[in-house]
Amino acid sequence: MASKQRVAFLGLGVMGYPMAGHLLAAGHDVTVYNRTATKAAAWAAEHGGNVAATPREAAADAAIVFACVGNDDDVRQVVLADDGAFAGMSGNAILVDHTTASANLARELDATARGRGLRFLDAPVSGGEAGAQNGALTVMVGGAEVDFAEARPVIDAYARACELLGPAGSGQLAKMVNQICIAGILQGLSEATNFGVRADLDMEKVFDVISKGAAQSWQMENRGSTMIAGEYEFGFAVDWMRKDLSICLAEGNRNSARLPATALVDQFYAHVQARGGGRWDTSSLLHLLSND
User: Which residue among 44, 97, 196, 262 has its CA within the 20 to 30 Å range from the CA of 204?
Assistant: First the structure.
């Protein structure tokens, strides 16, 4: 069990909002910051925590500062700007970045933090909005073992699995592996669903039986029924997935890892966006096959 800590949480989107709530429910003293102040005020009204006007103010006196924002540029803004978190942190505090961002940014922030007498962990998450709401996220972490050991009991407030995978940047690299896997699985599931429907199979029954065998996946069990029904107005958005896959493809170019299937699925998602599906769930790859 984690001892009570003074913590800050920067970014109250679909993931950060419930994650910060779990920290407060676990007994921690939580101060939140969100770029849209009304969202922070709504969080405080619901949970009873504190609200800060800037990341710097939120981070002051916090032992651990959590961030969960959109992309590399957003992280730099909330962490490195004059009113950013690093300007307010002190006393060997730890910044835990849950944003899905580049490994290069993680290494940059780690070096900057240590130059200021601070500490840093890159810790992207998987599990989606439901995982955040249920406190059942998977957290992939890069950084120093001693820093991880200190932060992990606090992270456990919203994690079902949390693993240190190597030095700074390793968490982001692991998240790239995760997204590469998901992209391939969703394309295969989309093709299989379309094939089965056109073959006049009862796909609910098909998924029920094959999900008990080697074809089983989280995506099949959690998205199979909605894909059959053509429902996509929820979940992890295509726009976010394309952001993530662009990070994967850039890293693949850097380390000479060939990602032909990932590049192809990324283009399929571009077609979904062109159909107006940028906010659809990533399972909407099926829409390209069933509505061609």
Answer: 262
Which three-class secondary structure state does DSSP give residue 31?
strand
Cα 212 from chain centre: 28
Strand arrangement of the beta sheet that strand 125-126 belongs to: 125-126, 137-141, 159-164
Can you tell me which residue has the tokens 């959690």? 222
> Pairing relation of β-strands 6-10 and 50-51?
unpaired
SS3 7: strand
pLDDT in tens, 4-27: 999 999 999 999 999 999 999 999
**What's the alpha-carbon Rg for the chain, to the nearest Å?**
20
Mean pLDDT of the chain: 97
Nearest to 179 by CA among 264, 245, 106, 257: 245
Distance CA 289, CA 5 (A): 50
Contact 31, 49 (CB under 8 A): yes
> Residue ranges per domain, the chain?
6-167, 173-290
In CATH, what is the architecture of 6-167?
A: 3-Layer(aba) Sandwich (3.40)
What is the SS3 assignment for 52? coil
CATH architecture of the region 173-290:
Orthogonal Bundle (1.10)
126 alpha-carbon distance from chain centroid: 5
Half-sphere exposure of 188 (CA within 13 A, CB side): 13
Alpha carbon distance 228, 283 (integer Å): 10
**Model pTM score:** 0.95
Give kind and range of the element (H or E) at residue 65.
Answer: strand 64-67
The C-alpha angle with vertex 21 and arms to 154 and 218, in degrees rounded to 5, equals: 80
Report the C-alpha gap between 165 and 241 in whole angstroms. 23
